[in-house]
Amino acid sequence: MKPLEIFCRNRVMYAQITVHDKSMGMKDYHLYSKNGLAFYVFRKSQGVWQLAFGVLADDIKEACIDALILRFDKDVPELFYHH
Fold it and tell me: Which residues are registered as beta bridge partners of 13?
């Protein structure tokens, strides 16, 4: 799968990503660090995005969620983002 582009702190970061489909509309998105050892789990459950596993600075966490929304959420970018 194509790496996720994350824009934060005036630079672009890339993270490898895998998607795990859970039950009842819940999905887990695993983001891996550049060394492939550390990973972070972001979860979308009932339309709410959250960091479910791992510790990140608030600005990086929000940038990751923004990148996930732009790539995987079909309805929200059309409502709130314009190029």
Answer: 6
Residue 81's contacts (CB-CB under 8 Å, 6 or more residues apart) are 70
Rounded to 5 degrees, what are φ and ψ at 31?
A: -105, 130
Distance CA(64)–CA(6), nearest Å, equals 6
Sign for the pseudo-dihedral over CA of 32, 38, 44, 45? positive
The reply to whether the predicted model has a pTM over 0.90 is: no
For residue range 13-58, what is the model confidence (pLDDT) as tens digits?
A: 999 999 988 877 788 899 997 777 778 999 988 778 899 999 999 9
Strands (E), 1-83: 4-8, 11-21, 27-32, 39-45, 48-53
Structure tokens at 55: 């510790």
